[in-house]
Amino acid sequence: MGFISSLKIGLNAIIKDLNKPESFKKGDEFENYVRANLFIANYYDLVHMTHDYNTNQNDFVEETKEPDYLFRDKKTKKEFYLEVKFRANLFNGKIEWCKDYQLKRYQEFNKKTPVFVIIGHGGISKMPESIYLLPLGSAKYTGLFPNYAKEFSIDLDRPVTSKYLWNIGNH
Questions:
Q1: Helix intervals (H) in 20-159
Q2: Residue 155: which residues within 8 A CB-CB, separation 6 or more?
Q3: For residue range 108-157, what is the model confidence (pLDDT) as tens digits?
């Protein structure tokens, strides 16, 4: 590949990044944080992940409606979905983590395969101040009060173990 072709590819990548909405950039950053620090490859196989903003801009992929990740626990061999959300601030005193139609869709997935929600809150998406991990059944509303969310607080940089994951809500 010649210099000009390489330059065009690089410029297209920069243009795509500049046109990507900030909310999608933050979401991608937090998703990367979650995979690198919390749901690590040593403990969980990545079975599927939804497509990114740029892919869906060109041709929307239906699977994007699924929760962000489908993992397989290496210890138990159980598969589960993980929906990843980052919220910098509260809205009306709550952490608004999804919309009504999204919650209904996640509840449908949860009927067949467990769905967990991980929420980074405060700070920046690459380094949130707090992280909450809860089973979908404990996230019955689109908004969570901070005092309730704190019950599901996890360490910022400690991988989530199989034992912890499958016992959330039982402690």
A1: 22-33, 53-58, 100-110, 146-149
A2: 131
A3: 999 999 999 999 999 999 999 999 999 999 999 999 999 999 999 999 98
